[in-house]
Amino acid sequence: MRDDTLPLTTLPNAPGVGYKARHFDALMADPGPVRWIEVHAENYMGDGGRPHAQLRALQESFALSVHGVGLSIGGEGPLDTDHLARLKTLCDRTQPASFSEHLAWSTHGMEYLNDLLPLPYTEATLARVAAHINQVQDELGRKMLLENPSSYLAFAESDLSETDFLTELTRQTDCGLLLDVNNVFISATNLGLSPQDYIDAFPTEHVGEIHVGGHDDDTDDHGAPLLIDSHGKAVVDPVWELLSYTLAQTGPKPVLVEWDNDVPDWSVLRAEAERAAQVLV
Predict the structure, then answer these.
(1) Which InterPro entries match (predicted)?
(2) How many CB atoms lie within 10 A of CB 244?
(3) Would you say 36 and 98 are in contact if contact means Cβ atoms under 8 Å apart?
(4) What separation in angstroms does the CA of 278 have from each of 14, 32, 134, 241, 262?
(5) Closest of 210, 121, 212 to residue 167, by C-alpha
(6) HSE, side-chain direction, 13 A CA sphere, residue 116
(7) What distance lies between CA 83 and its chain's CA centroid?
(8) Which residues is 145 bridged to in the sheet?
(9) Which of 20, 75, 122, 237 could form a disulfide with 105 if both were Cys (CB 3.0 to 4.6 A apart)?
């Protein structure tokens, strides 16, 4: 179990996993190296019941990270204040060690999309996203971490690199960053870039969490490799290698293994956490 000398208000520099209710008993009985868990905020916005009871029990042994997927930080319109209020209620109730969201948009008017879509990196986008981040942080009364996206195309109108865009956001808002190494690998492969160069340019001093996960391999209409951020498979060796490269830059960090689709038995996810622990050594 966890090292009792570490407060549950801080994410430890150790493996974490995306929590799934089917793993509750196994996780409590045999956590292996897992010291923290992540939950998706939108799954816990109800008033109570079994999900919250399990979360309270888990928080006795594991630090908690709350990860939002529905704020649409990069959206053209204003943030949904009702959604933000529900998010505040959840964070006030659970007091997580970390809260994060995506650098992406997922709404248009009253339409809600299932995908987290990328943004053009322009000064206008920067101003809008910074205003949204400041609104979230003011409402929640806590710093948020912003996650780099997985990209499948680049916008012709972008006049900032993604790393410069993220660096400027941290300067304007004092937010932290969630560095998803799998997303870096996906974007670099899809856009023909070097993932190591991306990591070298990333403002790693602001990183509060690192994520790894699985992806699907496909090809585009021209036969070029196309990677899809599916979170439905084991982490591939090149992503583990990129994680090692990243940790050499950042030093030890909380590392989360994501597996959200085709979720395996606990023993399989635990083995992925074991591998993360080996990379962290």
Answers:
(1) MbnB/TglH/ChrH, Xyl_isomerase-like_sf
(2) 13
(3) no
(4) 10, 12, 37, 12, 25
(5) 121
(6) 19
(7) 19
(8) 100, 176
(9) 75
In the numeric block, the tokens 């293994």 are attached to 257
Question: DSSP alpha helices (H): ranges in the chain?
Answer: 24-29, 50-58, 81-94, 123-140, 162-173, 181-191, 195-201, 237-250, 266-280
CA distance linking residue 214 with residue 13, whole number of Å: 21
Distance between CA atoms of residues 259 and 272, nearest Å: 10
Q: Which residue has the tokens 């799934």?
A: 20
CA 164 – CA 218 distance, rounded (Å) = 29
- Tokens 């021209």 correspond to what residue? 222
Going by the DSSP 8-state scheme, the letter that residue 15 receives in this structure is E
Give 192-220 pLDDT, tens digit per residue.
999 999 999 999 999 999 999 998 877 77
Name every residue whose Cβ is closer than 8 Å to that of residue 47 and which is 6 or more positions away in sequence. none
| 241 CB-near residues (< 8 Å, 6+ apart) | none
C-alpha angle 267-271-4 in degrees, rounded to nearest 5:
95
Report the C-alpha gap between 275 and 27 in whole angstroms: 17
Split at pLDDT 50, 70, 90, the class of 243 is very high
Measured CA to CA, the distance from residue 206 to residue 184 in angstroms comes to: 16
What does pLDDT average to over the chain?
A: 90
Q: Which amino acid is present at 123?
A: E
- pLDDT tens-digit readout, 177-198: 999 999 999 999 999 999 999 9
Cβ 232 vs Cβ 260: under 8 Å: yes
Q: Is the model's pLDDT at 159 over the cut of 70?
A: yes
Q: Which residues does 3 contact at the CB level (< 8 Å), separation at least 6?
A: 12, 35
The token pair that represents 58 in the structure block? 């888990």
Residue with tokens 């085709």: 262
